[in-house]
Specification:
Layout (H helix, E strand, L loop, with lengths): L12 H5 L5 E6 L2 E6 L10 E3 L2 E15 L2 E13 L8 E12 L5 E9 L6 H5 L11 E7 L9 E7 L12 E11 L2 E11 L4 E4 L8 E3 L19 H7 L19 E7 L4 H12 L6 E8 L5 E8 L13 E7 L21 E7 L4 E4 L10 E6 L19 H11 L13 E7 L13 H16 L7 E6 L1 H15 L4 H9 E7 L9 H7 L5 H5 L6 H13 L6 E7 L7 E3 L2 E3 L10 H4 L12 E4 L15 H14 L14
């Protein structure tokens, strides 16, 4: 079963490393240390002690060139909060960013630009940007280097209020920009100090070198510069690109942390820049607060679907019972120099674009990057009972989502020139189904859920039903996959279904209750609800699961289809109701034991196909990064399924 608290928290190691760190304050004599907290990096970072707060965040990262070298243009923002504008206000702040090469053989990164350098000089005032008002504070920036290095690799800013001035930097958002050239992947650590008029100081140690900001040369963030020859940029051009508003701590409504919105209806010809501009203007939020998780072809329509999260809450997306929103966006909101690629009805005098937002992620969602090249492998991931198509596979409390952030690139590296001369191009799909437990009005069965999956999968594979297929199932999701394969095997009819069965080359099943699971707590929650019978069918000794376990190896006996079974080795908290709300804080139990999770086809019930994970039941498909050894086990299974010499032609064992 999934933890319901995660089911509404949706949706890259590098992208995660660029997110603002969550920090904790600790009292240390007369000062306060702002160091890395035990929680992983998160969006909308907000660090505070009592009424003091500091935010240091990456607003955007664009890659380009500086002369003959690769370069990164990094925009950061500082936000401050203090109890009042008197003697308790912040009067001084310092930010130091130290760039270092990531591998010994690479060249060291070099700081080429630090902006602003001085907001008091006439040149800065002449830009009239209003970004660094000299009447409010002074800001001085410079590049620097350690004695051991010849070229500058550090950038430093000092922000201060003139002595005797009543101004403050509280509730000000201060954008800062630097350009760094590099000849290999590099990283950065950050030191931040903020001091009040009473010399009360917040100070961060450099964020751990085990958790630096990472720069790989291709994972961007935020709105991109159109001119990526950075040496040609004037400072005024950079300032025009900087957003005029940033999120301030404690102001206005905030989204549920980590919420990812799915947006349908984006014209196929739109670029990410066009989408950024359109969304920013219509939702009235800075483009830097929009974070795109994916920008992909819709599997059902000739359009693009985007997955986004926000660090500034869009008021148009206030919570609704259905978690769905329809927003009509006037196309005139695109800048006049952009070409519009939409075909509104002729009866509409002012063309508009209907964007459909949701957070339920029902049906199929494509995670693979947009490309004109056709996909040649399908991968479908199905979540478990009470889970969420995106949230179930996302890092707990963090942004990393292995299916989108790592798996696509890892599969692209597998060489199969005999079958895929252009390389493997996987279409990674999430499948969302409604199987929530509390207050459920449905009496659907396992068979019903599998029929839904079958019909929707038939629709998106109709054009190429012979494309190799790999299925990933967590808990109930694995039972749906097995029931789907059984339906494909026994039913007459759709050629697409038969072809899809023959094209299935791998199953990865995580904590699947093949012989049932502990449902004691679930039944107490369901009570007399219509879904009580369905939950009972998932219990130990279930006749439904017994029949499936007997039928599956007989009908689905292709040796080409490799099946890997993962099982949990940690106790899991059970579900309970607290004040009318579902909470995963009940007595810890083994939800799905090893015998149940690994009861599959007889020839695969051995250590080659049975894999333990030291995780709870819901954490079986939640990894922290691509360096997680558990993710590496999963990646190894894909390598075995798709690696050189593996055939995708059907081969079945003789029926017994």
């Amino acid at each position: 079963m999934e933890e319901t608290s995660d089911s509404i928290q949706e949706a890259k190691d590098v992208a995660a490393a660029l997110d603002t760190r969550v920090c904790q304050f600790e009292i240390n004599g007369g000062s306060i240390s702002l160091g890395p907290g035990v929680e992983p990096p998160t969006k909308a970072a907000h660090v505070e002690l009592f009424s003091y707060g500091v935010i240091a965040s990456v607003s955007s990262l664009t890659y380009g060139t500086w002369e003959k070298d690769n370069a990164a243009l990094l925009i950061m923002a500082l936000n401050f909060r203090s109890p009042d504008s008197g003697i308790l206000r912040f009067t001084k702040a310092e930010l130091l960013i130290d760039f270092e090469k990531q591998r010994p053989g690479d060249g060291s990164p070099v700081v080429q630009l630090c902006h602003p350098e001085n907001n008091k000089n006439s040149a800065a005032n002449a830009t009239a940007s209003g970004l660094w008002p000299p009447a409010a504070y002074s800001i001085k920036g410079r590049s620097w280097s350690k004695p051991s290095q010849e070229e500058p690799h550090q950038v430093f800013w000092e922000i201060s209020i003139p002595r005797g001035s009543s101004a403050d930097i509280n509730n000000n958002s201060i954008p800062l920009c630097t350009i760094v050239s590099f000849r290999g992947s590099f990283m950065a650590t950050v030191r931040l100090k903020a001091t009040t008029a009473l010399k009360f100081r917040l100070e961060s140690f450099p964020w751990s070198k085990k958790d630096p900001m990472l720069f790989n040369g291709h994972t961007f963030k935020g709105k991109q510069f159109s001119n990526t020859k950075f040496a040609e940029l004037e400072r005024e051009q950079i300032e025009e690109h900087l957003p005029r508003k940033y999120p301030k701590p404690g102001n206005g409504p905030t989204p549920i942390p980590g919420t990812v919105y799915r947006i349908h209806g984006i014209p196929i010809s739109y670029t990410t820049d066009m989408f950024f501009e359109l969304l920013s203007k219509d939702l009235n939020i800075p483009s830097a607060s929009i974070q795109i998780k994916s920008f992909s072809r819709n599997p059902n329509h000739e359009e693009i679907t985007a997955l986004v999260s926000f660090t500034t809450f869009p008021t148009k997306l206030k919570r609704t019972p259905s978690d769905r929103w329809r927003i009509s966006v006037p196309l005139t909101e695109l800048s006049k120099n952009e070409e519009i690629h939409a075909s509104p009805p002729s009866s509409v005098s002012s063309p508009s674009l209907d964007l459909h937002f949701d957070t339920n992620f029902l049906g199929f969602t494509n995670l693979s990057p947009f490309s004109e090249d056709p996909f040649n492998i399908d991968i479908v991931a199905v979540h478990g009972l009470g889970g969420h198509a995106y949230g179930s596979f996302k890092q707990r409390g963090g942004p990393y989502m292995w299916l989108s952030d790592s798996l696509y690139n890892d599969l692209r590296k597998i060489a199969r020139p005999e079958e895929f001369p252009q390389g493997i191009r996987p279409r990674i799909l999430l499948y969302g189904h409604d199987s929530h437990i509390d207050q459920s009005p449905t009496f659907q069965s396992l068979e019903d859920l599998a029929i839904d999956l079958k019909l929707l999968l038939r629709g998106i594979r109709a054009k190429d039903s012979t494309r190799p297929l790999i299925l990933i199932g967590h808990s109930l999701g694995g039972l749906l996959i097995k029931q789907l394969l059984i339906q494909w095997a026994i039913e007459e009819g759709s050629g697409t279904d038969k072809s899809s069965l023959e094209a299935t080359i791998g199953l990865l099943l995580f904590g699947v209750p093949n012989r049932g699971m502990d449902i004691t707590a679930l039944l107490s929650i369901a009570g007399e609800q219509p879904n009580a019978e369905f939950i009972s069918s998932l219990g130990i000794g279930s006749s439904v699961l017994e029949e499936q376990s007997k039928t599956f190896p007989t009908l689905c006996n292709s040796t080409k289809m490799r099946t890997y079974s993962f099982y949990e080795t940690c106790l899991s908290n059970t579900a309970t109701m607290i004040n009318g709300k579902l909470s995963i804080t009940g007595k810890p139990v083994v939800l799905v034991d090893k015998a149940s999770a690994t009861h599959g086809r007889p020839w695969e019930m051995n250590n080659q196909f049975i894999i333990p994970l030291q995780r709870t039941h819901s954490d079986l498909v939640k990894f922290d990064s691509k360096y997680s050894h558990d993710y590496e086990k999963v990646r190894g299974c894909f390598n075995e399924i798709l690696g050189p010499g593996k055939s995708t032609s059907a081969k079945a064992l003789p029926l017994q």
